[in-house]
TrEMBL record:
Domain of life of the organism encoding this protein: Bacteria
UniProt keyword list: Pyridoxal phosphate
Gene3D superfamilies in the record: 3.40.50.1100
Protein name: Pyridoxal-phosphate dependent enzyme
InterPro entries, A to Z: TrpB-like_PALP (IPR001926), TrpB-like_PALP_sf (IPR036052)
Record domain Tryptophan synthase beta chain-like PALP: where: 13-301
Required cofactor(s): pyridoxal 5'-phosphate
Length: 311
């Protein structure tokens, strides 16, 4: 994966995604003591950056593969992203979802044309069901983040950010499975000018922070965080990229996530999900280090359950 592959990816997916706006807030800048440029992927099609990676992954398939459809297992944004990307490209998407997935997410997947196959709510059952669909339908499995084509797709958000603001000194992004921050770090490496990438991660699911310390993939003992989009562990493809190109990961507690989320809702008048607030929470936690800097921040998505807000 190099600079040209990111440029090519951006060109391939451009007609299927939104080039999302970049917003600023004078009040939040004053609080942080820095100049922050928010890349608003909460305004992306289906409401999150994952539309980028899902679209690119599908576009890389052969005609024969496209004819047989794609399959994934997800209860979150990737389920919606793959469904809408597949619908946009005229192919079938089979989405394995746990039986306890929120009804609002199941409804969204169906609205985007995805065919839901429910399974018991364990990772083992999700994988086994997805494997069965692969065999029965001949569908191609597409991983939500541990896939080079997905990583490249996610990196186009930061590429767009740097095209508009080439002099950023830092970019902050949330860390879950690592697809977004891996792609972001590649974009910063190839298209930034001494641009440092920093991850934000909840203390409750800090496997990426610990992995950077230990040099090996770690697991999470708990997933007790409001940032439900960041509960998945790093992948064996995302981790080496993060090791090489991400400077550090700042951990935040649950109260800091809620404060940052509420700040964006109230001051910027836009809806973001808890996972999306983690990078701002990370910046505010250690804001003394970043005074006067020009900072890009990926607002990853806005698919929040309005009946279950954390404030």
């Amino acid at each position: 994966m190099n600079a040209q592959s990111l440029i090519d990816t951006a060109a391939k997916i451009s007609s299927y995604i939104h080039r999302t706006p970049i917003l600023t807030s004078r009040l939040i800048n004053n609080i942080a003591g820095a100049e922050i440029y928010f890349k608003c992927e909460n305004f992306q099609r289906m409401g999150a950056f994952k539309m980028r990676g899902a679209t690119h992954a599908i576009l890389q398939l052969s005609d024969e593969q496209k004819a047989k459809g794609v399959v994934t297992h997800s209860s979150g944004n990737y389920a919606q992203a793959l469904s809408l990307a597949a619908q946009s490209l005229g192919i079938t998407a089979y989405i394995v979802m746990p039986s306890n997935a929120p009804q609002v997410k199941k409804d969204a997947v169906r609205d985007y044309g995805g065919h839901i196959i429910e399974c018991p709510p364990t990772h083992k059952d999700r994988e086994e069901t997805a494997n069965r669909i692969q065999v029965e339908k001949g569908a191609t499995f597409l991983h939500p983040y541990n896939d080079h084509n997905v990583i490249l797709g996610q990196g186009t958000a930061a590429l767009e950010l740097l095209e508009d603001h080439s002099d950023l000194t830092y970019i902050f992004a949330p860390v879950g499975g690592g697809g977004l921050i891996a792609g972001t770090s590649l974009a910063a490496h190839y298209f930034g000018t001494n641009c440092t990438v920093i991850g934000g991660e909840p203390f409750e699911v800090d496997d990426a922070y610990r992995a950077l310390q230990s040099g090996t993939l770690e697991i999470n003992e708990t997933t007790n965080t409001a940032a439900d989009g960041l509960k998945m562990p790093l992948g064996d493809l995302t981790f080496p990229i993060i090791q090489q190109y991400v400077s550090e990961i700042i951990r935040v507690d649950e109260e800091e996530i809620v404060v940052a989320m509420r700040l964006i809702w109230e001051r910027m008048k836009i809806i973001i999900e808890p996972s999306c607030a983690v990078p701002l929470a990370a910046l505010l936690r250690e804001k003394e280090r970043f005074q006067g800097q020009k900072i890009g921040m990926i607002l990853s998505g806005g698919n929040v359950d309005l009946s279950n807000l954390p404030f």
